[in-house]
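SEQUENCE-TO-STRUCTURE ENTRY
===========================
What this section holds: a protein sequence and its matching fold, both as plain text.
Question of interest: how does this chain fold, as expressed in backbone structure tokens?
***
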Amino acid sequence: MGLSFHFKGKLTNASELPAFVVEVDDICKVFDWRFSVLSTDYPNDQFVSPLDDENYGVIFSPHDCEPVTIIFDSEGRIYNPWMKDLITKHEDGQVKVITVQLNLEDEELNPVFTEGSEGFDPLDMVYTVSIKTEFKTAEQHVKIIELMRYLSGKYFSDFELIDESGYWDSRNPEIVDVKLNRVSQFIEKFEDLISNESINSPEDFLAFIKKLSQQMKDKEK
């Protein structure tokens, strides 16, 4: 478990894709991050419409972080090809999508189960990329968020980023450490409690989450 950030946007110009790939490659070499590329050129430096199945862009792997996928579809939009495949299978009836919403600040902690796509836009999920980090300090988180800020300012349009740590908006690394400490406390409490629990059903797990949430609230008080 760690902090996450979520982003969406579009490559401003198809002709800039090669320069984008080269620059990200150079940055990853400096940081010693693993790096891989997909297609690096749009045909005739133009976006392709209607959509085809080609994937453009890069994937890089900072230390202690999920791979950061900046993948563009043929029209230049950042998207998640794996989520697109899942949504397509759902629409074809091959898989069922069930969402569970649980607000840990809710006194009753009653989950809301939803089958199908009610309550969320499947396309919004396809065109939003979510990355989870496992950082122990603010330094690495700040490094990635500032990289996304730089790349978005130079290459992207209609860009949005939601940073669970709050650093994207505040640029205050101290609040990242605060959030990381809360996550660490949650994990420690989770591991301590679950070692003494017998969970054999969804109802047992929900009861455990309620107990965990209440203890965390009591500790904060």
Q: What stands out?
A: Strands lie at 4-11, 34-37, 56-61, 68-72, 98-101, 112-115, 129-132, 156-163. The mean pLDDT is 81. The radius of gyration is 20 Å.
